[in-house]
Amino acid sequence: MLRHRLPLLILLAVSCSVRAAVQESTARSIRMVNRRGPFLGVVVPNTFEMEPLLRSPSFSSPAKGLPPYLDVAGRRFRFGIIGEQKVVIVMTGLGMLNSGVTTQLLLTLFDVEGIVHYGIAGNADPDLQIGDVAVPRYWAHTGLWNWQRYGDGPEDELALESNGDYTRKLGSLNFTDYSVDKNGHQSAAGNLLNGVWYQPEEVFPANGTPEVREHAFWVPVDGHYYELSRKLEGLELEGCVVVSNGTTTCLPRRPVVAMVERGCSASVFVDNAAYREFLSSSFGVTAIDMETAAVVLVALQQGAPFIAVRALSDLAGGGSAQSNEAGVFASLAAQNAVTVAVEFISLLKS
Fold first, then answer.
1. What is the pLDDT of residues 206-216, one digit of tens each?
2. Strand 214-216 vs strand 145-148: parallel, antiparallel, or unpaired?
3. How many whole angstroms separate alpha carbon 312 and alpha carbon 340?
4. 159, exposed or middle or buried, with CB in 10 Å at 0-12, 13-18, 19+?
5. Does residue 117 sit in helix, strand or coil?
6. Are strands 39-44 and 85-91 parallel, antiparallel or unpaired?
7. Of 20, 33, 107, 315, which sits most exposed with the smallest number of CB within 10 A?
8. Which of 164, 163, 171, 216 is nearest to 195 (CA)?
9. Could you tell me which residues are beta bridge partners of residue 219?
10. How far apart are CA 222 and CA 100, in angstroms?
11. Are 336 and 304 in contact (CB under 8 A)?
12. Global confidence as pTM
């Protein structure tokens, strides 16, 4: 059992009269479940991404003695088997806060030996297409900024930078570069928004000294998981979808599993081509989503092996007609993400 589950003993000992505590009946169920562990944690953002997994013939009911699910703190933790691997599946909800809280609950409450996260994502790489499934080696949270005051430039120190709180090492987004006049032409005038500098997260590893912070921006997935996922290249994925009028629409080519270097997350839905291109050119990212970096940052701090697979549902901000039909191909992307996640989980027991 990983060290990050030790606080469970304290949590379960808290009186039921304390509102934040787990009810004693639930605590007993958690203890019973953990005696039948360990489990692989499967973390999913939303219902439409989770339902294809629950309907999959690869997913079966939990082993004898395990409940189908436990409800804790507004989350439903579902138990079952994928291949020969015992799993606990949980839906996070939208955004970084929800995904971080849910992942911490998963690791604190249950005997989890690793995390597989899957879902759909926006695409920042025009060489890939909708339906492709990206498996990034590194993830970053690109929503933590130091917003610089108007009039300051790249050579000016940020507020509190000298204290070690902020840095200019990761680069900035200068809004002046995107200013246009009323005719839509590039403007040389300044912009009161000035620019923002990207910041690493403060992290506090569970096996470190409490309250002594470290910093992390590019967080690698588990090395063994990533190498294992290379076996997924060549996996057959779905390339056609039946639309509302009953006709079948197909992508220009059959989607593929793409091993890529980087993905990023923030609690921002990116439907803007200029920002997509900035993220691609400045950080070299492929997948853009709203949850993964929070999951990986919690896993990093708690010492849990982690990997994420994200099916590309659209070229963020638009592109060719075929590349940005998220409303048409979102279900196909979700199914492809499930296909890849299930195959990866099966490899863990092979």
1. 999 999 999 99
2. unpaired
3. 13
4. middle
5. strand
6. parallel
7. 20
8. 171
9. 139
10. 18
11. no
12. 0.90
